[in-house]
Amino acid sequence: MDIVRAVRNARAENKVELGKKIAAVIVAGEKEELIGSQRAVIERLANIDPAQFHISARLAEKPKEAVTLVIGSTEVYLPMAGMVDADAERERLTNELRALDKQIAKLEALLGSDFANKAPAAVVEKERGKLAEAKESRSKLAARLR
Fold first, then answer.
1. pTM of the entire structure?
2. How confident is the model over 119-124, as a mean pLDDT?
3. How far apart are CA 60 and CA 48, in angstroms?
């Protein structure tokens, strides 16, 4: 599952001890029920503290001093007060934003070329879906950087 992989990568990047359980807040939107059904698996594989694990469709206020992960339309916040360097997290988000900008530019160029007219409709639609998802991820990351 992409969420587990992203949380594990964030734990490694931030040098969180392997055995240490962490808090997590997942803002799942329309996928709340689906992700909720996988709660126990996510807890176990990502080593999340069940008492500090929340899944919701929306979030009134984003946690402060949290590592932010954007996986498609899903946002994951790992509140790591005291465990994360805020400047390093800002730099990581900025780098991720740059990578998304490159991906968006590449997909827009591809869809603006003859590819869109010559490729099978299913392939073009798949690329349009990737573009929409990348744009959504970019807007969420940009909002988090503000």
1. 0.63
2. 91
3. 22
Secondary structure in 3-state letters for 103-138 = HHHHHHHHHHCCHHHHCCHHHHHHHHHHHHHHHHHH
Q: Rounded CA gap, 137 and 72, in Å?
A: 6
3-class SS shares of the chain: helix, strand, coil, % to 5: 60, 20, 25
> Tokens at residue 20, please?
């240490």
**Continuous segment of H or E residues that includes residue 27:** strand 22-27
Backbone angles phi, psi at 73, to 5 degrees: -95, 5
Q: What is the mean pLDDT of residues 23-36?
A: 91
Quote the DSSP letter at residue 62.
P
Taking the C-alpha atoms of residue 115 and residue 58, their distance in angstroms, rounded to an integer, is 37
| Residue 135 to residue 142: CA distance in whole angstroms | 10
More confident residue, 14 or 45: 45
d(CA 101, CA 26): 24
3-state secondary structure of 89: helix
Give the list of residues 6+ apart from residue 53 with CB closer than 8 angstroms, or none: 23, 24, 25, 39, 42, 43
Q: How far is CA 92 from the centre of its chain?
A: 13
Phi, psi at residue 45, to the nearest 5°? -75, -30
